[in-house]
Amino acid sequence: MDKLDCINTFISVVETGNFSHASRKLGVTRDQVSKRIFYLESLFSTSLFTRNTRKMDLTRSGEKFYQRCKVIVKELDLAANDFIYDQKYPEGILKISAPHAFVQTCFSDIISNFLNQYPNIEIDLLFSENSTNINEHKFDIILKIEEEIKEQDIFLLDTYKRNFYATTTFLNKYGRPKSIEELRKYNISLYSRSDLKNNFIDSIPQLICNNIEILLDFCQKSQSILFVPDFLAKKYEDAGIIINCSKDIFSSPVYFYATTPYGSKIPKKVQLFLDSLKQHFQPLTDRSII
Hints:
This protein has about 290 residues and is α/β, with parallel strands linked by helices. The protein has helices spanning about 5-15, 20-25, 30-45, 60-90, 105-115, 170-175, 180-185, 210-220, 230-240, 270-280; strands at about 50, 55-60, 90-100, 120-130, 140-145, 155-165, 190, 205-210, 225-230, 245, 250-260. Strand 1 and strand 2 (about 55-60) form a beta hairpin. The radius of gyration is 32 Å and the shape is rod-shaped.
């Protein structure tokens, strides 16, 4: 039997004076009222009422229990009101872990727009190099860029491709590669050490650096070919600084997605930020959740 129903019934009996009035107030039968009171008395092995033909008086234990129950119900109402308020006017700290690569992208715009819309939310943002080292229970949202999606119930935001990029000067000097085998003959620079796991890169890279500006400077000096995700290269490719030199022979996909530790019970402020991410990265509505 539900204890909260029994407590509410007990309070109604005390405040209305008898079982019949309480049953009408609660919209249940008199027998249900009686059973709930009997359950509480059995649970605590004590009588809550002194019964006679005229009225029902509280016992000393019943009076103490009544005062405690009033506090319990009031606190529950306050908690419910707080929850409703938080759902309507979200506030508090939102802890987010994001890949370090997004330091150099539009992520600051996403954060700024979100905080302008929800000024009572405070964002605690950590850019991490390796998502496998993240304690996921310390974060409300964990953003990842991975070759494989291993988690359940993820929010897929976008799919990127990693390509090889080089300057025109480099390609004029060394020639444009026509196969994976030819790519392996060139000096290669990597954005992430994890790219060494790819079996198509079997040469030792000249440079590994998680800063695209440094990699580009190195590349512009015609020292090597870059292997980086297309979202990092796009601005420089559009400006003609670098050229995708593996578009016709090779492309390696990576997935950008979000996870939360909440399962299906996602707090309002977390859901709002996920919605902001999806609005920014998608019209991919048909693949938002796997």
